[in-house]
Design goal:
The chain is α+β, with helices and mostly antiparallel strands. The protein has one domain. Helix content is 29%, strand content 38%. The chain contains 2 helices and 6 strands. The protein has helices at 8-18, 46-55; strands at 4-6, 21-25, 31-34, 41-43, 58-63, 66-71. Strands 1-5-6 form a 3-stranded antiparallel β-sheet. Strands 3-2-4 form a 3-stranded antiparallel β-sheet. The longest helix is centred in the first third of the chain and has 11 residues, at 8-18. It is globular. The two termini are 19 Å apart.
């Protein structure tokens, strides 16, 4: 199944259903989804997540319920 670009609204819904939150890799501008249990990541607001995606020209892609953040 091919990866399909999705908007933040759909990503939020998928994340909520999987118990995921937006996260930032400590000491970097890297973002990813997290359950909040990884010591390398800090949970951030959806607003900060969205701003970081835009700043870094990243987009969220989905396939079969799996999400990946890549260059948009």
């Amino acid at each position: 199944m091919a990866m399909e670009k999705i908007d933040l609204k759909k990503a939020k819904t998928i994340a909520q259903n999987k118990g995921l939150k937006p996260g930032k890799v400590k000491g970097t501008e890297g973002v990813q989804f997290t359950k909040g249990t990884n010591n390398r990541l800090v949970v951030i607001s959806w607003d900060e997540f969205e701003k970081t995606l835009a700043k870094r020209k990243l987009a969220i892609y989905e396939s079969g319920g799996w999400m990946k953040i890549m260059k948009g």
